[in-house]
Amino acid sequence: MVTTAELPFITKTFIPRQRELIVRRGRILEPMLARVDKKVQAVCAPAGYGKTALLTQFADETELPICWYSFAPEDHDPVSILRYCVYSIRALYPDFGVSCISLLKSGSNVVLHTLAGLFITELHSNVCNVSGRLVYVFDDVHWINGKADLEEALSLLIERAPTNVHFIVIRVVQNLLLPHAMPLQCP
What we know:
The strands form 2 sheets. The protein has a 4-stranded parallel sheet, with helices on both faces. It is built from 6 helices and 6 strands, in the order αβαβαααβαβββ. By secondary structure, the chain is of the alpha/beta class. 40% of the residues lie in helices and 17% in strands.
């Protein structure tokens, strides 16, 4: 059982509910669904363009297991992020992350590379060897810009994860050039 001390905002690991009356974006969705064999896909657009809604449609339409983490402005600690990632996967694979959790609960100063290494080893041993594939969505990645520890943790996970783990990274772009070279500023 997860305590609020371990994960005060467990909803960061929930796939958002798909809203009613959302138009299916087949032109974008079909290629995404076809490319789950790639290591990573990025979905980038200004705020309000429906990036998260698109990925909820993706989650509804794929048969692959989906894990989710939504970054927030208050995210600063990579060890905390990895804790959320462990529990997100445990929702699908209850035996996942035993070594990670025992390290986190040991009270010792947890080294990011050690925890990330255990996480990746567990992915390989307890997920990929069991079910074959996994999709991990990281939403609102723009919140970690300039936070070197978080950028390093996310890069480490993506670079070192087994090849049958597919990542989708969602981020807001702040400045998008429209066809007539008129910049659109996003809040």
